[in-house]
Amino acid sequence: MTPPTTDFRPIRFFHRGRTVEVNGAEPTRTVLQWLRDDARCTGTKEGCAEGDCGACTVVVGELDAEGALQLLPVNSCIRLLPTLDGKALFTVEDLAAGGALHPVQQALVDGNGSQCGFCTPGFVMSLFAVYERGLAQGPPSRQQLADALSGNLCRCTGYRPILDAGARMFELPPRPLDRAPVVSALHALRSDPPLALPGPGGGYRAPRKLADFASLRLAHPEAHVLAGCTDIGLWITKQLRELPGLIFVGEVAELTHIEVGADGTMSIGAAVSLETGWQALAERWPGLAELWQRFASPPVRHAGTLVGNLANGSPIGDTAPALIALDARLLLQRGERLREVPLADFYTGYMKNSLEPGEFVRAALVPAPREHEVVRGYKISKRFDSDISAVCAGLAITLQGDTVVSARIAFGGMAATVKRAMAAEAAMAGRPWSEATMRDAAAALASDFTPLSDLRASAGYRMQVARNLLHRFWFETRPSAALPAAAVNVRAPEAVR
Predict the structure, then answer these.
(1) In the 8-state DSSP scheme, what is residue 379?
(2) What are the residues whose beta carbons fall under 8 Å from the beta carbon of 418, sequence distance 6 or more?
(3) pTM above 0.85?
(4) 21: helix, strand or coil
(5) Which domain holds residue 136?
(6) Do both 400 and 377 map to the same domain?
(7) Which segments in the chain show pLDDT lower than 50?
(8) Given the DSSP bridges, would you call strands 11-15 and 88-90 parallel, antiparallel or unpaired?
(9) Helix, strand, or coil (residue 35)
(10) Residue 442 and residue 360 share a domain
(11) Does residue 6 sit within a domain?
């Protein structure tokens, strides 16, 4: 297998009503940098430069498998400019037509939804995506509005008037986006060859075929596999690292799908977004719905990928605990060779894994739900929305009557890697699912983990929280008088969206 040969060409995408070409851009140049420094579209603001505050939120448009335009809010501060190739970019400058404010903007003005105004363009763009979706599907509930804005932080106005504006915008004369020219331009851009940019380590490559991706990965093992850039982006903006080549997974069509095999195993491709992947998981296991809604924020979930969150190996990544509890495996590919490894065995140390040079994670394989299996995912963080976990738990037990047949428990934030609680599992297996069993399992966590103290939590707090989560799990799943989520959570999540 030889790597494909691709001529270099400009980055091309739809912006401000036309297709623009960008020549000579560094592969690691961000969308925000291009907007403010090159396009002089300074409405988009830089706040945190790490995808947390939402001041830089823009909307990216792309065609789905049926050719329909999808509009997704993303953080432009950690979105690399080359990944816009073949897509559409909308910013706050696009919304006011002929001097007339868009309904989103007008509703914010009418409701005093802005004070200092620095965060306002980001709120406007997140609400714009909600507005376009609401015109087709109906206005969202107030909780859905709050969820959609969970990646936008406001420090002065407060959220009530902003949420009021989110409801008010649907009461104003409608102004839907004229999608026809956008769709036409994106269809035309599909005829461009795959994007390639010069640079060290092979530069930037965005192959469209799986075989080409595997070949490039094998030829450039030193290069980084790039997905949503929600992790690598911080290497660029915060650590100022020079990266030895990037191979973008987002254009490989074979990796953008979720497939279910004859045995019920769900295969989640490496380019499937966090939002799409977690929605599929929560539909199968509703007990994971809260974890999905609290995972990062919509702009991060739309950009990042589920497989990327697993592959980066962070001990505080929220996907691994849940998928280890579900006994997931990873499908790895090196050239034409495939192999599978249990996710629980994939991590070999802090931010280290068992990938061989030139190998990549092709898909996450999640077994079908088991009969009499109950599953939960819990996240503890200082802020409810869009925050990094102090402790994250994935718990799954199979019951026969009131007896625990098997248990799989995994915690993030408790060790250098996401790790199974083997001693706690052993304390549960084969015993009645009783309070005594639960307490023995909680005590056994001391054999499984020696937590560290850091800025997010102390070691003692983490251990106590992990034990408390086992207690909550028992309350929710005990054979008799199990408590509903509303009884154990001050903010019970809505039904799976």
Answers:
(1) E
(2) 315, 317, 320, 321, 324, 347, 410, 411, 412
(3) yes
(4) strand
(5) 98-168
(6) yes
(7) 495-497
(8) parallel
(9) helix
(10) yes
(11) no
